[in-house]
Amino acid sequence: MAVTSDTLPTNRERVGTLAARISEPFVLVPILGWLVGALVAVLLEQFIGLPIARAFGMVRIPALFGILIFFEILSEIFVAFVELLQVPSMILMQLPDFLLFTLENLAKLPGVILYVLLIYILPISLVARLTVSPSNWVAGKLFNFRSWLSVLLHIALMYLILHIWTDVTDYRLLVARLILVSVIITLSLNVINGYMGEFSCSHPGFIALGAYGASVFTVGLFVNDNVLGTALLPETLARFMFPIGLILGGLIASLGAILVAIPSFNTRGDYLAIISLAFMFMVKSLFENLEVFGGPRGLGGQPDLATLPTVFFWTIVGIWIMNNFVRSTLGKALNAVRDGETAADAMTVNTRRTKFTAFLFGAFWAGVAGGLFAHVIRYVNPGTFGLQMLAEVLAMVYFGGLNSVQGSIVGATSIQLLGEALRPLEIYKWLVIPLLLIIVMIRRPTGLISFTKFDFTSLIKPKKEPGGEV
Asked: 237-282, pLDDT tens digit by residue?
């Protein structure tokens, strides 16, 4: 048979074949096996990460898997290149120095790559591959005994890995907490924009209401502050009362959501977007002019209550509750409203109650996330809750995928990590991030993971052999 261009594999087929061969040994690895591998990796970094980093020419452990170092090097080269072009008459004289500077900086990259390979990729891969049988056996026994116990074990391992990983630097701890808060925010907006199909721009307003509500509660009661006065209760009680402050912030955000929910009964699409955008500016302007809450200067002095265990707990609870909400009968009603409000009304779906509930529910969790955000940063300012926050939150939702809990988690994590990784580029990162979003949206218009159901119990099941044995 003659070989023609039609019978030759395409580049995409070649890449797919290569990826299948690489992933084939790991097909039967359950999530438990990957978590054990990740635990070994972070423990390795905790004990021998610094000596290995210094052996590869780094002064400290890479904060974000070396990505930050890569963009720092890229930023320095770009700045040097711009300075070179500023004096055209001296380009030929300064070109050798520029090339030498570029080579010296690029020479740092192999060490970063080797560090990530030795600390993360190889240990995780080896442990996951070598523990296929025991991890499947343990996962199977736990799942068959009590599925909820298996879920708790997996969540405990996730937290342990995150705790050890963030223990290396305070920067990692801050980034991890902000990512967890972003997951709650993205999920709450996905309830409205994804599952209900409305285009709401009011989320920064809800977050602001929750942030200020929780901050006034904790600062006013437990902190001696120049704005809110003398503390009414001892600060030792703040940690126990903090959940009440978060719930209060969520309830205040829900009350504010009424101003958006009622107009949504008669408007959709662009008109609702304008109304919700107006609400966001109303809230922002309100706090800018309320001197009792600090006015445009903002409100600071929040107690350090949003620790990693606290934020992680609220994130897990938020994911569980919101996932159950969108999978419930009311969640199906949201999908009916999204696909056709008139048809849903004809099929006896109470569209007004459905919209009202969705807005209040999404706003409540946005308010809780705002309270956590305020106590992670330990300062709130009206300028924070503007168009830039709106753009970031919308990017997380649509990048991750509509109608998908997994998509919201992936979108929030990806955009936050991308923003931190591109921080060395300073203002130029706002050219790179939109460009990457445009490329992704062209290839996947509905986001990376869209219109999928999230069932954690199905994810933690053991992987089975072709014959059916674990």
From this structure: 889 999 999 999 999 999 999 988 888 777 777 788 888 899 999 9
For residues 104 and 76, is the Cβ–Cβ distance under 8 A?
Answer: no
Secondary structure E strands in 117-269: none
Domain boundaries, given as residue ranges, for the chain = 26-163, 170-458
Residues 6+ apart with CB under 8 A from 348: none
DSSP lists the bridge partners of residue 380 as 299
Contact 235, 275 (CB under 8 A): no
The predicted model scores a pTM of 0.90
- Classify domain 170-458 at the CATH topology level: ABC transporter involved in vitamin B12 uptake, BtuC (1.10.3470)
What confidence tens digit (pLDDT) does each residue in 337-372 have? 888 877 888 888 888 888 899 999 999 999 999 999
Q: Is 197 helix (H, G, I), strand (E, B) or coil?
A: coil
CA-based nearest residue to 214, from 182, 187, 183, 238: 238
Give the whole-angstrom CA distance, residue 101 versus residue 218. Answer: 51
- In degrees and rounded to multiples of 5, residue 380 shows phi and psi of -130, 145
Contact between 222 and 233 under an 8 Å Cβ cutoff? The reply is yes
Our CA angle for 428, 439, 200, nearest 5°, is: 85
* Burial of 359 from C-beta contacts in 10 A (0-12 / 13-18 / 19+): buried
CA distances from 104 to 30, 73, 421 (A): 42, 10, 21
- Tokens representing residue 142 in the block: 């736990």
Nearest to 116 by CA among 54, 166, 41: 41
